[in-house]
Structures are given as C-alpha cells and as structure tokens.
Amino acid sequence: MKTRTRRLRGGELLRRMVRETRLSADALVYPLFVRDGEGVEEELPSLPGQIRYSPDTLSKGIDTALSAGVRSFMLFGVPEPEAKDETGSGAYDENGVIQRSLRNIKKSFGDDACLITDVCLCEYTAHGHCGLINNGRVDNDSTLPFLTEIALSHARSGGDMVAPSGMMDGTVAALRKALDVGGFEGIPIMSYAAKYASAFYGPFREAAGSAPQFGDRKSYQMDYHNANEALRRIEIDIDEGADIVIVKPALPCLDIISLASRRIKTPIAGYSVSGEYAMIKAGAASGFIDEYKVMCESAVSVFRAGAGILITYFAKELAGAIKKGDIG
Ligand code: PBG
Q1: Per CATH, the architecture of 22-324 is what?
Q2: Least C-beta-crowded within 10 Å: which of 10, 64, 129, 182?
Q3: CA 135/CA 152 separation, integer angstroms
Q4: Where are the domains positioned within the chain?
Q5: Do 171 and 164 touch, CB atoms closer than 8 A?
Q6: Centroid of ligand 1 to alpha carbon of 200 (angstroms)
C-alpha cells in the first residue's frame, strides 16, 4: 500500500514530530474576578476552582498563575450591588475596583504580568446591560463616551491592554481615538469582535453579578445562526484599529475561528467561556468524562482552528499540561 496514514502515528516521537499545532503557555490568558472589599478570597460557586479576590488580595491569584507559567490576565471588576447606577459610574471611577487593582499589581509585579482589562458597563449598571438605556432600549452612541472613559482610566492606572466587550458599534474607533489623544497610543485594543449572544455565559454572569435585569443582550450581541456577520464584524473592528480580535464563545464557534483565520492577518483570540469551563467541571464531577483530557483536547482544538491566543479559566492547568508535554 503506497499510502498509509497510520505510518506517522506509529510511535510517540513520530506523532510529536508531525504535530501541526504547537502550544505555548505564553498564548494563554487567565480571567480573574476582583470584587470590591478587603481580604476577599472566595471560591465562585458557579465556577468551581475559580477564586474571586479583592484589590488587596489579587496579587495572590496573579502570583499562583505566574508560578504555573501563565503571565497574561484578563481582569473583571465586580462592584458592590449598591454601588451600581444607571451609567455604571464605578467602571470609570479612578478609585474603582479595577483601577485600584491595576495600581497594586503593577506596583508588585511590574512588567512580569500583562494586564488586560474588560471594558464594559454591564457589571456596573443597575440594569445590567452593556450600554446606557434610552427609552427602554440599549443606546449605542451615548454609551461610547462612557466606554472611552473606562478605557482611559484603566490606561492611567497601569493597564497594558483594553478589551471592550460590550458590542456597541464604533467602540474600537472611539477607544483608539481617545487613547491616542490621551497619550496612550501604545496601548493595544483586544476587541470582542465576534461575540455571540450565548447561553454559555451563564456562570460568568453569576460570578460577576452582571445578568441583565430586563430583556436580553440579543440587540447587541450576535445571533449564533450567523457566520458572515461575524466576519463582517471582525473586519470592521480591524478597520477601526483593533490589534487583536476575540471570537467568543470558543468551542461552539470553532468554525468562525477557522474562517476568520484564513481571511485575516490580525491575531485571533478564542475565549473559552464560563459555560464551557463549567460543563467540563460538571461532566467530570459526575464521572462522565476525564476532566484533564477533555480540557487538553478542547484547548488544542481552539488553536487548531486557527486562534493564536486562548482565554481560559483552565490557563494554569493547561500551562502545566504543556510543561509536562501532554499537549503542545
Ligand atoms: C461582559 C462580559 C461577559 C463575558 C465576558 N465579558 C458576559 C456577558 O456578555 O454577558 C462572558 C465571559 C464568560 O462567560 O466566561 N460583557
């Protein structure tokens, strides 16, 4: 038989030699939740194994991740419920939970940790939507100046990169302009370009207290029946100045990652969201699947599809798997 594809699968060394997907812990981003308060270190019931910190304890979470080999972080702020208001003012408060966290972490870790911040209003608004409400609707254009205020306050506090996740049109252009004018032309924008209205965000909303108080997010997040729309959205964000584009969620959108990676030259990040993590945890807890192996296979599939970066709650464990040589 001239062709036998099994030949290259004959032994471990051969299999490793011909691998088409190579992983590095440098490509992993670890999301962390920071709550208002002091001395907080609490496990999140909706995300078993994930810990919510306060600005003064966050360095522990960063330290543990650095020891595991993970050096990039995505920070989400969780203000006290009574601090929420109509315009999400806690999000752009110079003494807000994220701003204080950034200053603390930069003081302790300097450039050893890359801090990417979520730029959105939903955790900070009383109504839980990602934009301002006008006549019962989420208003696009009046939201943009608030998003630029958030991004600027993060940059001033020492953030390394901003990640707008609110899906308001024109966000990237508005942020790029404001950052440039503010003297932050070197701060990259990692844009949630293709973000679907997904039920996979459930555990996150519980962890961040960011569920919408009325309606849903379908007027701004994308309909999961669409792929062309995602490509269009990605191209628009790149045109507006996005440095990295996110596709989210990851596993249900491997097709989008694959299509986009063939079309665009801008780095793509897949965001393996809270529901993906929770499913693996729950499946393993009930004995149906092997957590470690499913984690490894899922992560590799996102890179194989064409992502260069993976945002994942399993970042530390994956860095360990890469170090052990189980993947990568
Ligand atoms: C905020 C935001 C969400 C996630 C990231 N940023 C929630 C949402 O859009 O409702 C989800 C992340 C996850 O599920 O892990 N806009």
Answers
A1: Alpha-Beta Barrel (3.20)
A2: 10
A3: 28
A4: 22-324
A5: yes
A6: 9
Quick one: which H or E segment has residue 153?
helix 144-156
Ligand 1 atom closest to Cα of 204? 14
Ligand 1: which of 210, 217, 272 to mutate, judged by most atoms within 8 Å of the beta carbon?
210
Q: What is the pLDDT of residues 5-33, one digit of tens each?
A: 999 999 999 999 999 999 999 999 999 99
Calculate ∠ Cα 169-242-233, nearest 5°.
45
Is 248 a known active-site residue? yes
CA distance 273 to 94: 28
Cβ 98 vs Cβ 33: under 8 Å: no
pLDDT in tens, 95-147: 999 999 999 999 999 999 999 999 999 999 999 999 999 999 999 999 999 99
Catalytic residue among 2, 106, 195, 323: 195
Query: Active site residue: 60, 84, 107, 248, which one?
Result: 248
Q: What does the block give as tokens for 291?
A: 């957590």
